[in-house]
Amino acid sequence: MPDWKTIRADFPVLHQQVNGKPLVYLDNAATAQKPRSVIEALVNYYERDNSNVHRGLHALSMRATNAYEGARARVAQFINAADPAEIIFTRGTTESINIVARSWSHAHLKPGDVVLTTEMEHHSNLVPWQQAAKASGATLKYVPVLGENAEGGLDLAALDQLLTKDVKLFAFTHISNSLGTINPAKELCRKARAVGAITVIDAAQSIGHMPVDVQDLDCDFLAFSGHKMCGPTGIGVLYGRRALLDKLAPDETGGGMVVTVDYKGATWKPSPERFEAGTPNVADAIALGAACDYLDAVDRAVIAKHSNELGQLAYQKLSEIPGIRLLGPTGERAGLVSFAFKDVHAHDVVTFADEDGLALRGGHHCNQPLMRKLGLTSTTRASFYLYNTAEEIDVLVASMRRIQKFFGSE
Ligand code: 7TS
Question: Average pLDDT for residues 202-223, to the nearest whole number?
């Protein structure tokens, strides 16, 4: 078992005071902090190797290219992809999903087809499918969530009813960013495959928090962001099965992704270049590789156990506060809790908690349709990661008790 307290020492930003109190950073579902090794990977690249990739024959360009392609191979290993060519570097989860929603949908969806997603999706895995359905004439359907606090997770019996031969694509989140639900991703992929639908997993919340193996999950596409797994912002990944990618038209066109061009047209390179037009985000891709190294050195199964236990502990301690309503599963859950006081807006909760040095998030968490279904406009969310401790949950609970007393919310 790693010493979680020494892990904290790897994250420079955590060691500061906020409003005269030690910072308690519990906004990891929005973005995770960066260990020194990731920050150094960025600095080293810009101080020693900075150059454009793929097109140069000089030493710096070759070093940059090797490091960039090395990062691709590292990410492939991180998610157990069969081939580094299945790793496309993007700006993040949102761009990754949009690429599939535009390129794949444009070629494959027609009126009468069904795109299936769930009621617990982040807008990034919802609005692109609404757009794809509108553009193609396909119908978008949602797997419902169960329970007045969505504590029952996805309605798997309803899923079985919804999964007809008309379903061409099923897109779902691995972990809900507003409920803390861990979806049975492997089972969902198996069910979708049985009716011939392809699968898209939104792994934004799972990628840095638990082992993710695309071959074991047997998914077709998987999307994630570097910044939620200790890597930089502005870099993310679209994983796609090679056989699907090679048949897919590019989403963006330009330099670097063509074989030949004349005044009439162009031909495309295979994946991954086909989907990476223009100068890529070299530095951040390399630092994402460093983030993979960091997380694997700790071990993602161990990280999952640690942050899920913090999630359960926080859920249990917060549920003892009068007038609080907690969302999501009552038992096993991911490392986040989302809750609401009856008469206090989440923005007030977050502002009060900030006085106690806490970094929380309040709002709809880009889950507006789900919030509306649950009769809420917003929740307060605390989300945990490998550097958080049980003592920090005590700070959270004490702060929430102070707020509850101040507002007299019952
Ligand atoms: N999918 C899920 C499940 C997410 O939680 C997020 C970001 C995204 C997609 C989009 O990721 P991006 O990196 O492309 O922006 N979630 C949150 C959040 O919960 N609070 O801030 C961002």
Answer: 98
